[in-house]
Amino acid sequence: MIIFWVLVLAGAGVPLLAFLGSGRRGARLFLLLNFLVLIACVVMSVQVATQGIIRAGGDEFRVDAFSLLLALVNSTVGFSIAWFSHSYFLKEVQHHGLSAGQQKLYHSMFQLFLFTMLLAVLTNNMGILWVALEGATLSSVLLVSLMRKPQGLEAAWKYFILCGVGLAMALLGTVLLYFAAEPALGAGSDALLWSQLHAHSAALNSGVLTIAFIFVLVGFGTKVGLAPLHSWLPDAHAAGPSTASAALSALLLNVALYAILRFKSLLSGPVAGPFAAHLLMGFGLLTLLLAAFSMFRQQDVKRLFAYSSMEHMALITFAFGLGGPLAIFAGMLHMLGHSLAKSSVFFATGQASQEAGTQDISALNGLLHSRPVLGWSVLLSVLAILGMPPGSLFFSEILILASAVQQSWQSVPFLLVGLGTVFAAIYPRLQAMLLAPANSLPNRQSGVGGLLPVFFQISLVVILGVAIPGQIELWLHDVAGIVQ
Amino acid sequence: MIMHSILAHSAIISPVLRILAAWMLVLSFALLAQRRLLSLIRLLAWQGVTLAVGTALVGQLTGDPVLWVSAVLTLSIKGILMPYVLHYLLRRLQVRGDVEMTLNVPSTQLLGILLVVFAFSIAAPLDGYLPAATHGMLGIALAAFLLSFLMMITRRKAISQIVGFLAMDNALFFAATSATLGMPLIVELGIALDTLIGLVVIGVFFFQIRDTFDSLDLHYLEHIREDK
């Protein structure tokens, strides 16, 4: 029942915001809706904690530890985005002269995006999972192009076409999955239910399944930002409003990887299983190195952190490819930490570049002196994303490295080079942004209330790092049993 | 049960299905060669209609009512609504009638033939798992998919890229119908819903592009550099 509440609350917001989503009222309504969704998700997690896996609508919706953790992080970040958006977006409206229609478009498309992200993790049907990810692409395209600047339109077009092609491949993969499942499970919607497929995975034709997995990996991998089909990612992150960048990084990339991992868990047997694992590890390492070395050239603060998202997703993909309880625990923890920290980074740098009127890093200077609260939020969130202790990303990176040493020593040098390069690329920029003498005073100061989610989420990251709640730890361990 | 009815009907229907599949491939080649936007949209509509008829035939073959629903959905969305919306956009946005290509027609056609050979060689091993009535159709669907992809990457105008994209979608549906005799109803409905949202998004998006650049030619959209 609670599953329906989550989806209905999130989904009902879409038409509501399409009519009432302009001005201050729209921003408040958006905030209220996502607060309610967050509460519903917390109630849902209490139910899962007490009753174990919960289902609804026959077997169409199913919440286990893996989907629950992502639903929790989706709704938490969704709420933070709505909070930040309240002040940020109203400023954007002033600066860019957005009409009431565009404001409604922004709020309703954003709500649609958040709804599809929840639908994707709560559904048990692999076909609906695809439908949700396609819906997420369609709704976020208009967020990227919202400002109608040439750069934004170009990025949105690239995003639309590349991810459209990717999703078409993923659909082909889904069709092939159904094709493989039909003989074992019979025609009809049961044959695409993950729980059914997982229970009967030994009976599925592994040849067809392997081909399906390749299509799904390439297809959804486009959305995760795995090289070589990643080129939409930095453009789309840089062009849209910062709230959209935060949403793409913190929700979409995770959920796309979630889809790949759900597929992977269906591959069993001595040939198909390791094959899929090696593919994930290979794509992970390739993307990690590519993203790390691309960072040096970036002048745009949001592009820089978009590459950082690629780097983290690559690391997570690698960890899940590595397999084994420790690596999967670490990968999942990293997913949570990255979502919370990276959305904070986009809130903080988003506000900084809004105030400065530019996203050029060299123009964002001396934040710690001129705007202390903003400076501190940039400092804390970027340190968290760099994997500094006591944030959880530090521990998950150490755990991923440790399991790589145990299980695949050949990959360790690549990981170290990648992580070292990222640090070398980001840290000096951070210093300049915080400490260098300011070029000029920011010309469009706004309040600091919008930055509250940064401190809220960074404290969550620290809690996950040093004093992880027992129930969350249990769920993190459960994930290994699900995706293995 | 299903296998039984396939055996009963396949003698008559399966040749028709095969002709439809061939027709699908011909349409994909035509899309690749066509230079005029209006004709591109017409060809896309024909693809949609072919797809709907094919789905209905498979529905007849298996006696599965879900496929009839799917056929009606396909006809109304892919055969009628989508071409209509594209046509409307074309008129409203006053796009010039010709398509600029990055590669000339003969070379794309030759490339297309290679893609067809490639598609058949990939799909051949999968034929063993297919019902006899739909042997060879997965190869055709894959070929149509690759041809539409080729078309998409060789065109400059936003509308023709979208046509290529939608043709890719059609090919996928053809694959779904022929390989698995259709997807579950709930998935079909979800995909149809996505298509409708997609049409709205495409519409809004085209107007945004036109208002910003006064053109739908995509070479205006080639300016993002890594290090500006």
Automatic annotation (TrEMBL), chain B:
It is a multi-pass membrane protein. PANTHER family: HYDROGENASE-4 COMPONENT E. Its main location: membrane. It is found in: Cell membrane. The chain crosses the membrane at residues 6-31, 43-61, 67-90, 102-123, 129-150, 162-183, 189-207. The lineage of its organism: Bacteria, Pseudomonadati, Pseudomonadota, Acidithiobacillia, Acidithiobacillales. GO terms for cellular component: plasma membrane. Keywords: Cell membrane, Membrane, Transmembrane, Transmembrane helix. InterPro entries: HyfE-like (IPR038730). It comes from the Bacteria. This is Formate hydrogenlyase. The keyword NADP does not apply. It comes from Acidithiobacillus thiooxidans ATCC 19377.
